[in-house]
Each structure stands twice: as C-alpha cells, then as structure tokens.
Amino acid sequence: MTTSTPPPSNLPSNEAHQLYLRQLATYLRESRQILDAWDAYADEHCDSETFEPFDEAAYGARQRQRDTDTLNAFGRVYFHADVLVDIAEHQLARLPASATSDYAWRLGELRTSTQKLYTLHRQWLDLRANLPTDAVPSTRAYNEPLAENRADAWHYLDQWGIHGQALIDINTQAHMQPQYSPQAPAQAPPPPEAAPKSPPALR
C-alpha cells in the first residue's frame, strides 16, 4: 500500500504530533475508566433479567454524569482530532499492505465521529444563543437541552474510545518503516477549520 501521496497541508511538527498522541492516550485511558465505572454502576442498579434500572431518576443522573465526564476528557483531543486522522491516513498510505490490517475503516469511523461531534457542538452553541434570558446554567431550561446534546455526543466519544488506539498503532508502524521522515513545520497548525472555536466542555 506504499504510495507517494503528499502529506496533508498544515502538518504539525513531529513534537506537536507526539504531544497530540499522548493526549489521545490519556483520553483512551480515562474514557475506559469512565466506562468501566458506568458498567459497574449499571450492573449494580439494574435488574439482572430485564436490565431495567431500579431507580430511573438516579440512573438517568448517573448516565448524564458519564456523558459529561467523557466529554470533558475528550477536551484534550478535541481541537486536533481532525489533524490526528489526517496524519494517520497519510501514514497508512505509506505502509505496506500487510501492515494496514483493518485500520482504514477505523479511520473512517474516527473521521465520521469527529465531524458529528463538531456538528453537535455547533448545534448546542446555536441553541444556547436562542434560549430565553432566564435559561441560565443550573436551570431546567438550560440543563435539559445541554444534557440531550451531550447524550447525543456520547456515542461518537465512545467511537473514539473504541478506535482511537489505531492512530497510535499506525504512528508506531510508520516510524518503524525504513527511511521514515516526518514532516516538521516550525509551528503547529491552528485548530482545523471544521472545528468550533471553543472546547466542547464549556457551557
């Protein structure tokens, strides 16, 4: 699968890319911990046969906390998520076919999830701008649509937890190739244009 495809534009320095990958590794670890804690809670607080929660209100509150915690953890990756996928696609194109495994479809899942997350965040910013003046944080009129937006985002955050390791693995394999030479501009690029300009965890 080795080709001479050009690198993506605005490629970050190698140092910045390695930082992004370390931040991704932190997210993968923390999101796994959050999910494990959620699974343990669900096992303890749901009927083992019907899987229905014993207390729907408490269950819903705990689920919203899971969504918020996962989104906050992703904040480290948020602004350069597209860049990470761009670089991995470029690296993958330079790897031999025997090394590519199932990475291509995983990168597709990550790119789709990233765009969905950016879209959901823009939707929340638009919705928030049109809330009544008395709809402020901690009020029901504010918290309910925020919780719904974060609930919609959780699936795509989970996809990053499932497939994000592929970006690290592709980078490792790329660096093992003979004569690998990462591009290294002087400065890291700004956030990708597709990304909103504020982090998702901000209210």
SSE pattern: HHHHHHH
- CATH architecture descriptor name: Up-down Bundle
What is the tally of beta strands?
0
Instruction: Give the proportion of residues in helices.
Output: 55-70%
pLDDT < 50 runs, ≥5 residues: 184-196
Into how many domains do the coordinates divide? 1
- Helix tally equals 7
- The whole-angstrom Rg is 19 Å
Strand content: under 5%
Quote the distance from N terminus to C terminus. 44 Å
Major beta-sheet overview: none
Q: Regarding CATH, which class?
A: Mainly Alpha
SSE order and pairing:
Elements: H1 14-45, H2 56-78, H3 81-93, H4 97-100, H5 103-129, H6 140-163, H7 165-175
Helix pairs in contact: 1-2, 1-6, 2-6, 3-5, 3-7, 5-6
Can you describe what's shown?
With 203 residues, this protein is an all-alpha fold. The protein has a single domain, classed as Four Helix Bundle (Hemerythrin (Met), subunit A), CATH 1.20.120. It has seven helices and no strands. It has helices at 14-45, 56-78, 81-93, 97-100, 103-129, 140-163, 165-175. Helix 1 (14-45) runs antiparallel to helix 2 (56-78) and helix 3 (81-93) runs antiparallel to helix 5. The protein is globular, with a radius of gyration of 19 Å. The model is unreliable at 184-196 (pLDDT under 50).
List the main descriptive attributes of the protein structure presented here:
single chain; 7 helices; mainly alpha; Four Helix Bundle (Hemerythrin (Met), subunit A); 203 residues; globular
Quick structural summary:
The chain has 203 residues and is mainly alpha-helical. The chain has seven helices and no strands.
